[in-house]
Design a protein that fits this description.
The chain is built from five helices and seven strands. By secondary structure, the protein is of the alpha+beta class. The strands form two sheets. Strands 1-2-3-4 form a four-stranded antiparallel beta sheet, with helices on both faces. The longest helix has 13 residues. It is globular and about 35 Å long. The chain starts with a strand and ends with a strand. The relative contact order is 0.18.
Length: about 160
């Protein structure tokens, strides 16, 4: 499977909105917008992040839009994030996309966070060199409760 990153196009946004409203994906991601079905809030969020200096990419698998990958935040505290459509889980797409993103963004350290029970995401991050640095608790909108999360770091 050919996995590549490219700039986000306007035509990607309806695909992202659909992907980010899958109930199982939301539960696994845990830390999501308060109301993922609020299209106005979604559009405002994407306008803001597309206008920022953050690195934001569309993930393509064999030419199809399957998700997003990004690096955001202040220097020295920048985090990675990614989202892959559930229909494409378990195929190595997230690992390939994150590896490509890390090659594009050489600054270190970088951080990541994942729900402690999101074994798939923790596995992807580990394969890409991230190491557990801490644990925390945070309110997970998608679950309606406070949960454990893992904070990971990628150094030099």
């Amino acid at each position: 499977m050919d996995v590549v990153l490219r700039e986000v196009h306007d035509s990607d946004l309806p695909v992202f909105f659909r992907q980010m409203n899958d109930p199982e994906s939301l539960r696994m991601a845990a830390f999501t917008p308060k109301d993922p079905a609020d299209r106005d809030a979604f559009d405002a969020h994407w306008r803001k992040i597309r206008a920022s200096s953050d690195v934001l990419r569309t993930i393509l698998a064999d030419g199809d839009v399957v998700g997003t990958a990004a690096v955001y935040g202040e220097p020295g505290e920048r985090e990675v994030t990614y989202w892959v459509d559930r229909a494409h889980w378990g195929r190595g797409i997230a690992t390939a996309a994150l590896a490509a993103l890390l090659a594009e963004v050489p600054e270190r350290p970088l951080y990541a966070r994942a729900a402690a029970d999101n074994t798939g995401s923790l596995r992807v991050l580990g394969k890409c060199g991230f190491r557990r640095a801490a644990t925390a608790r945070g309110f997970a909108q998608a679950r309606g409760e406070e949960i454990d999360e893992v904070v990971l770091t990628l150094r030099g």
